[in-house]
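As a warm-up, study this chain.
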Amino acid sequence: MSDYIKEEKNLALALKEALSKITLKKVTTGIGHDLGGYFCDFYLKGHGKIGYINDDGWGGDVTPTYVSKAKQKVFEDFLKANNVAQKMLDNGFSFYKSAEKINFDTQAITIIEVVLIKLEEEKFIKKQRKQFEKAIVFGNDNSYTAVKFKIPLKAVVLSKKGKEILQNEYDKIKRNLKENEKILNDNLQELGITL
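Now compare it with the structure written out below.
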């Protein structure tokens, strides 16, 4: 995990309440030559759509585009009220040296990216958990591998020698796990698999 993502995760904890008031819509990720770009509309609870951010993924400055000057002021007031600049400084963005040096565009982009990372993590976890139905899933917080079966694991254990086959596969995976890996399924014990 990159230092930047760690900093944003720390910031997410510090700004948890404020982040709950921001909603992203029309989210597109994986844009540009490095696939690090994104587009999203952003909304603030009680104020509707505030604007959008278009990071084309080709480098250069990224700035939010606001629906109006009034919406921009609403969002800047929100950033001030939640002390975003100071919380950025306190949570890994110390290269700015002081909160006054962190302009509103930088604060806005950073807080939107924190929400975006949280959404991407939730999507990743949901996709991973879906795999649990038909696979033994192993890996770490950033990536995983699934050893898939053609039928749901619940049906595997009901078939002749199915429980034994599933147990053997589990044991084989467990023996071959790398240092930072683990088996991610939380449904194997209920299927009678010895962990």
